[in-house]
Amino acid sequence: MKWETFLEPYKQAVDELKIKLKGMRTQFQLEQTHSPIEFVTGRVKPIASILDKAREKEISEDEFNRLAYQIQDIAGLRMMCQFVDDIEKVVKLLRQRRDFIIVEEKDYISHKKSSGYRSYHVVIEYPVQTINGEKKILAEIQIRTLAMNFWATIEHSLNYKYQGQFPEDIQNRLQRAAEAAFRLDEEMSEIREEIQEAQAFFQKKKEKGNQH
Ligand code: 0O2
């Protein structure tokens, strides 16, 4: 099989899922309520990264069935949220959907990785319609806050540069940055709670005023 043929259903899945997940954000906006989804991105894993991972897992490059089964993020979607609480809301919305099934959830928020990485991963089985019938593929949806995304993006590009072998000072800085991102998320959640309390207070006051 050619790589182009193998990757085609993944491309289709990423395109379709981007539209669907972005649609969830639009629906919140139309209802004029806070959207737990800030923005959505998607990509098909580059062939070079698939081959790197295949080597790690000792899969040879022509074992397309094993690649499809064991590399769960060939199709990858990311949903960014403003607040940590939003992540759970998004996961609940994903669990309710009827257009795919969830096959695995990985909670790297309650259990952050030793690198400092935090994110919630949902692996889904998604049916793609092709001219040769339905093809089910795996896709990974990563749900994270803007702060988690900022940290992961920087760490990912440094990882690329240093091939995972960070000099000690950079390693320490990344750990401190991960803690700072965690505190930023906490601060934002607290500010949000205060804003919501203030809004509820003024709403009540307004309603009382209208009764007279
Ligand atoms: P990309 O496309 O460059 O982002 P497994 O397949 O189970 O052996 P793993 O790591 O258990 O591998 O899978 P998991 O936990 O689902 O993680 C896969 C993806 O999560 C990674 O993809 C990253 O996008 C993200 N991730 C996991 N750990 C880290 C981390 O420490 N730092 C950052 N920045 N991202 C992380 P890839 O393979 O890196 O590919």
- Whole-number radius of gyration? 21 Å
Q: Order of strands across the biggest sheet?
A: 1-2-5-4-3
Fraction of residues in β-strands: 15-25%
C-alpha termini separation:
76 Å
What's the number of helices?
6
Indicate the CATH class of the domain at 3-146. Answer: Alpha Beta
Give the low-pLDDT segments: none
Looking at the structure, the CATH topology of the domain at 3-146 is: Beta Polymerase, domain 2
Q: What is the CATH architecture descriptor of the domain at 3-146?
A: 2-Layer Sandwich
Secondary-structure-based class equals alpha+beta
Q: How many strand elements? A: 5
Largest sheet: 5 strands, mixed
Could you characterize the architecture of this molecule?
- The chain has 212 residues and is an alpha+beta fold.
- The chain has a domain at 3-146: Beta Polymerase, domain 2, CATH 3.30.460.10.
- It is built from six helices and five strands.
- Strands 1-2-5-4-3 form a five-stranded mixed beta sheet.
- Helix 5 packs antiparallel against helix 6 (168-211).
- The radius of gyration is 21 Å and the shape is flat.
- The chain starts with a helix and ends with a helix.
- The mean pLDDT is 94.
- The structure holds ligand 0O2.
- The site of ligand 0O2 has 15 residues, from helix 2 and helix 5.
